[in-house]
Amino acid sequence: MAIPTLPARYKPALIWALYAIGLMPGLYAFYLGIFGGLGADPVRTFEHLLGLWALRFLCLGLAVTPARDLLGINLISYRRMLGLLAFYYVLAHFAVYLTLDRGMILSSILGDILKRPYIMLGMAGLVMLIPLAATSNRWSIRQLGPRWNKLHKLVYAIAAAAVLHYALSLKAVTAEPAFYIAVVTLLLGYRLVRSRLMARKRRRRNGTAGTTTRSRA
Amino acid sequence: AAALNAKPSGYVLTEKQTSKQDVTSYNNFYEFGTGKGDPINNSGAFKAQPWTVEIGGLVGKPQTIDIETIFKDFPMEERVYRMRCVEAWSMVIPWVGFPLSALLDRVEPLGSAKYVAFETVVRPEEMPGQRGLFQPMNWPYVEGLRLDEARHPLTILATGLYGETLPNQNGAPLRLVVPWKYGFKGIKSIVKITLTEKEPPASWNVMQSNEYGFYANVNPAVDHPRWSQATERQIGEASGLFGGARMNTLPFNGYAEEVAGLYSGMDLTKFY
């Protein structure tokens, strides 16, 4: 599928603009929160919203490969941005949890992390994201070579941890967490069938090409 | 909402009351949707008038009472209670209501009655949370109390808040308020009250019995399996994002002196 591509020289500018746009929901919520525009429980709303945006960017990042495979839309050069946006939202989400929510009371925070599976899952997601964010630069990609790909498969575990962390933090699984569980399941499930799917696609393409050649001959 | 005449009562918390805006816009009432803002946004079509409540089971005088009769026959009182949600937040709400025991006296419970069961109305056409594909729980919402809990002077049926009749999103026209229990025990829009011999089902307990007990007494020492109940965030305490420190949750939500005796000899970690 042909989608309009940008001249290479505009790409960095576009990426910076997309970073700014990607950070908007968080900044806007912060602005609303300061002026009392986040409703009756602003801390919870803000904390929740930052987490949800982190999950959304994780899902978008995981959608890049299937979008290329299945729809022919190549957004690979935006994937680093999506991953880093997810990382920034996770950091902000964690910072709000530590300060505004728990008021930096370390005993309560440590107790929470050690006792609550959903907090443990969230923490695990954050910890696993750190090496990915740290190696998201070109130098690391070159240095690590094929190991970079292996390392960045951690994102599958991160997405699973993130969506479970979200669902378990709620009183009941309502429509919204159910939606994200379905999305993450599809995105991760795709990885299980991808190699077979691609092989079949290649075979079909080769097969078709062969027939064409024969009929021409 | 119409103005209500209510005499002051002895049960008035002196803490700062949660604003009417917050009390009426931040609600859990899944019949109208699972979001906190859903009840106020989706309850416009709900008709709380006319309304009758059917009271039966193990009683000498089963009857169906009109809400107008309830307003006429039971003197309303103002009760300012803290409401502690199982999700670890709380509000201080000026309810208008009357003791449930007064209503129970009228129907004359039999000696065999040990529990009181409650049921919420089912009206999918007026309650969007009760229709559609993704429904989080089974309807009707049901709740129950032990008879001595139901007869306790703190237990009221509320008909209003902030001096006016209940808004739809808060459980119009009649709801239960049991201030020493988690908020989900406070069943809303009640159409049926049944006295029983056996412990009646309670919706959240049926759905997740390891997380929500039949008793659901506020207890900072017994955590929800997935989160701590030791502290709570007071709704409306923070102006914006800052300044809303958590407060320590009190045993029986601060009503231990009045109600702890109801549970003497019971292991509250088992009967949570």
TrEMBL record, chain A:
Transmembrane segments: 12-38, 50-69, 81-98, 118-134, 154-171, 177-193
Keywords assigned: Cell membrane, Electron transport, Flavoprotein, FMN, Heme, Iron, Membrane, Metal-binding, Transmembrane, Transmembrane helix, Transport
Cofactor note: Binds 1 FMN per subunit.
Organism expressing this protein natively: Ciceribacter naphthalenivorans
Official protein name in the record: Protein-methionine-sulfoxide reductase heme-binding subunit MsrQ
GN (gene name): msrQ
Family (UniProt): Belongs to the MsrQ family.
Residue ranges occupied by any Ferric oxidoreductase domain in the UniProt entry: 51-162
GO molecular function, one term: electron transfer activity
GO annotation terms (biological process): protein repair
Quaternary structure note: Heterodimer of a catalytic subunit (MsrP) and a heme-binding subunit (MsrQ).
Major localization listed first in the record, in broad terms: membrane
From TrEMBL, chain B:
Swiss-Prot/TrEMBL cofactor(s): Mo-molybdopterin
Single GO BP term: protein repair
UniProt entry keywords in alphabetical sequence: Metal-binding, Molybdenum, Oxidoreductase, Periplasm, Signal
Metal-binding among keywords: yes
Catalysed transformations (reactions): L-methionyl-[protein] + a quinone + H2O = L-methionyl-(R)-S-oxide-[protein] + a quinol; L-methionyl-[protein] + a quinone + H2O = L-methionyl-(S)-S-oxide-[protein] + a quinol
Enzyme Commission identifier(s): 1.8.5.-
Enzyme class: oxidoreductase
Amino-acid positions noted as binding Mo-molybdopterin in the UniProt annotation, renumbered to this chain: 27, 30-31, 85, 120, 170, 175, 186-188
Modification after translation, per record: Predicted to be exported by the Tat system. The position of the signal peptide cleavage has not been experimentally proven.
GO MF entries: metal ion binding; molybdopterin cofactor binding; oxidoreductase activity, acting on a sulfur group of donors, quinone or similar compound as acceptor
SUPFAM superfamilies reported in the protein's UniProt record: Oxidoreductase molybdopterin-binding domain (SSF56524)
Cofactor note: Binds 1 Mo-molybdopterin (Mo-MPT) cofactor per subunit.
Database matches in Pfam families: Oxidored_molyb
Alphabetized InterPro entries for the sequence: MsrP (IPR022867), OxRdtase_Mopterin-bd_dom (IPR000572), OxRdtase_Mopterin-bd_sf (IPR036374), TAT_signal (IPR006311)
Domain Oxidoreductase molybdopterin-binding: 47-204
Lineage top rank: taxon: Bacteria
Physiological role: Part of the MsrPQ system that repairs oxidized periplasmic proteins containing methionine sulfoxide residues (Met-O), using respiratory chain electrons. Thus protects these proteins from oxidative-stress damage caused by reactive species of oxygen and chlorine generated by the host defense mechanisms. MsrPQ is essential for the maintenance of envelope integrity under bleach stress, rescuing a wide series of structurally unrelated periplasmic proteins from methionine oxidation.
Subunit structure: Heterodimer of a catalytic subunit (MsrP) and a heme-binding subunit (MsrQ).
HAMAP family in the record: MsrP
Assigned protein family: Belongs to the MsrP family.
Protein name (record): Protein-methionine-sulfoxide reductase catalytic subunit MsrP
Name of the encoding gene: msrP
